[in-house]
């Protein structure tokens, strides 16, 4: 685990409604720190937004960790980058006086959010995982009681196998997380359904 927090390029938007937990926005492959800001504002008006850029570049496209092929992760790199991201979040919380954030991750960002849950239980208040898959072949055993997770998958997603998102849901449930899952008639891209479900789930936290 890293002792010092890495410097990650990021954007931070302070809360106008301090009662709501901050959102940790985690973009997909090829995105950056500005990508999910509009989505964050839409699903959680008034909340603080912390939005880092993934430090890995794949053919010029930012990601949060390396992969060997599509859907085949470099798990050593994933573990290291997950620990770096956890250290960054802790440092930002301390500097800015932030409560435990809720992660809102899409695709590659959802996958590192799942990894954050599994490697750093208690860091996140909850996580909305949009188009996530199981990040580890042999996931660590953790307890996630009290952690709320929203899992939105697409039944026509060409990138995320249904078995992988189902295995992630099962693992999180078996770990004690309160999991809300919807398989939407969609592909990998997001739609208004994702926005509405995420907004409703966040409002009920
Ligand atoms: C990943 O690499 O995290 C997933 O395949 C999703 C993607 O970024 O395409």
TrEMBL record:
SUPFAM superfamilies: alpha/beta-Hydrolases. It holds the Pfam family Abhydrolase_2. Residues 15-193 form the Phospholipase/carboxylesterase/thioesterase domain. It comes from the Bacteria. InterPro entries: AB_hydrolase_fold, PLipase/COase/thioEstase. GO terms for molecular function: hydrolase activity. Gene3D superfamilies: alpha/beta hydrolase. This is Phospholipase/carboxylesterase.
């Amino acid at each position: 685990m890293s002792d010092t927090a890495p410097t990650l390029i990021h954007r931070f938007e302070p809360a106008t409604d301090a009662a709501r937990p901050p959102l940790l926005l985690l973009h997909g492959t090829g995105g950056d720190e500005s990508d999910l800001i509009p989505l964050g504002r839409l699903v959680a008006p008034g909340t603080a937004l912390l939005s880092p850029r993934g430090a890995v570049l794949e053919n010029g496209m930012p990601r949060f960790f390396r992969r060997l092929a599509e859907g085949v992760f470099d798990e050593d790199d994933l573990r290291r980058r997950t620990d770096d991201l956890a250290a960054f979040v802790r440092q930002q919380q301390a500097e800015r006086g932030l409560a435990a954030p809720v992660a809102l991750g899409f695709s590659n960002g959802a996958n590192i959010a799942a990894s954050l849950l599994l490697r750093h239980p208690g860091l996140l208040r909850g996580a909305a995982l949009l188009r996530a898959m199981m990040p580890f072949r042999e996931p660590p055993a953790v307890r996630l009681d009290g952690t709320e997770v929203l899992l939105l998958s697409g039944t026509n997603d060409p990138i995320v196998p249904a078995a992988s998102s189902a295995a992630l849901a099962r693992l999180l449930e078996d770990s004690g997380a309160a999991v809300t899952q919807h398989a939407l008639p969609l592909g990998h891209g997001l739609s208004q359904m994702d926005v509405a479900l995420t907004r409703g789930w966040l409002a009920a936290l």
